[in-house]
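Working notes for the structural subgroup meeting. M.R. asked for a predicted model of this chain before we commit to crystallization trials. I am recording the input and output together here so anyone reviewing the notebook later can reproduce the run.

Input as submitted:
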Amino acid sequence: MPTTSGTTSAAARAPRLLREHLYERIRAEIITCGIAPGAQVHEQELAQRYRVSKSPIRDALLKLQAERLVEVVPRRGYRVRPISLGDAAELYDMRLVLERACVERVIANASDAEIASLERYRRLAARVRLPAWIDYNRRFHAAIASICGNQRLARATIEVIQVFDRFTYTGLAALGDARSLERFVAEHGVLIDAIERRDRRAAVAAIRHHIEGSRKRMLAQLAHPAIVP
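Returned structure, recorded in token form:
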């Protein structure tokens, strides 16, 4: 019997969805330190763990390598990149420069409709779990970058933001308090307010306060086993 076009399309999507699902699962384990920083990972072991072939595992690891979450160890497979304090310091400096530039360009050039699109990030469901909050936080900062009017700046900023998920998790995991997450959502609201008023000075101060707060929380976790000197 001939295969319908709908069935063919669904069959074609299945491998892609499997690969995306595996990538998200492995990434989540790395972000939450379920797979510890510095740990060796092997395609065969992951394939057995997730009950799949090595091909989608390899694809996921290549994407994670591009995000600098894993690195290739010759003849030994892959290693989850440790959270280096030197890397963290450089990335926080980079993030502050890039996000400040994005905020300034949004205020100067973004349309009222583009700025209004940030309103969706003003609130978050009560008692949201930390992984979901991290996803929301990444999307909020990426949304500001995406309307800055400079595609190269936006891409560079979003690439740096994506690397920060492990830092964010490490800095917030010890808090264990949903009200703390609500406070950070309120900080986003302060930034949105300043952008909507096109108040450059207040917006720059808000993004600086937000990023420096994250830096301090990260430094406060120096004794965390996921961090290496």
